[in-house]
Write a structure and sequence with these properties.
single chain; alpha+beta; three-stranded antiparallel β-sheet; 7 helices; 3 strands; elongated
Amino acid sequence: MLSQQEIKDNMVRFESISTEEAAQLAGVVLDHIQLKSNLSQMLAGLEFSDTSTKQILADTILSFINRLLQSRTATSDCSPLLKQSGLNDEYSEVIGKVISNRLDTVVKDLAEKSSGDKLQDLEWRFGLTAASSTGAGTPFIQMRLQFENIQPVSIEMGMTEFYEFAADIKRIQAQMSNTLSI
């Protein structure tokens, strides 16, 4: 993924292609994200500009979208964010419209695909290690997770680790709810 500065530096390169070609390019990048297909092969189907320029512009759009997804910025119009990144008004409007029209679908598709194997069963056991003459026993949690298509996973952790794990799960759940508007 390109840095914010690299994205800004590459924005002026969009002026080497037409706005229609920029819209096509944004659509191909979104297809790549949704379909998990080879971006270089998809770019070869576009008949404008040289391969190097198409790749740089596609990487710029891809990095912009990835940063947008990572920031969890809920926006119905990406145009202002593109302008802030250094893209001129005309291209910001065109590319922003393409991204904004498909962003919700992309987010939902990514959420469905990233769910991986579904958790079928969770067994847990709370325990206490044996006490010794030097100290009391320490509590622990053992969990066994059974997934759809893979071997069961067994985990043992202390209470501090368990509380951190539970907090992480709650944070992930809240982020998913915000992203998917659940």
